[in-house]
Amino acid sequence: MAAKSRPKSDAPDVSDRVSRIREGVTAAILEHRLLPGTKLGEDEIGEIYGASRTLVRTALQQLAHEGIVNIEKNRGAFVARPTPADAREVFEARRLIEPTIVDHAVDAVSPAWINRLQQHLAEEREAELRGDARASVRLSGEFHRLIAEMSGHSIYLGFLKELIARSSLIILLYRRHDTPACGTDHHAEIVTAIRKRDKQAARAQMLSHLNEIEAELFLKDPAADELRLADVLGA
Amino acid sequence: MAAKSRPKSDAPDVSDRVSRIREGVTAAILEHRLLPGTKLGEDEIGEIYGASRTLVRTALQQLAHEGIVNIEKNRGAFVARPTPADAREVFEARRLIEPTIVDHAVDAVSPAWINRLQQHLAEEREAELRGDARASVRLSGEFHRLIAEMSGHSIYLGFLKELIARSSLIILLYRRHDTPACGTDHHAEIVTAIRKRDKQAARAQMLSHLNEIEAELFLKDPAADELRLADVLGA
DNA sequence: TGGGCGAAGATTGTATAAAGTTTCGCCTGT
DNA sequence: ACAGGCGAAACTTTATACAATCTTCGCCCA
Question: Which residues in chain B are contacts of A165 at CB distance < 8 A?
Answer without folding.
Answer: none
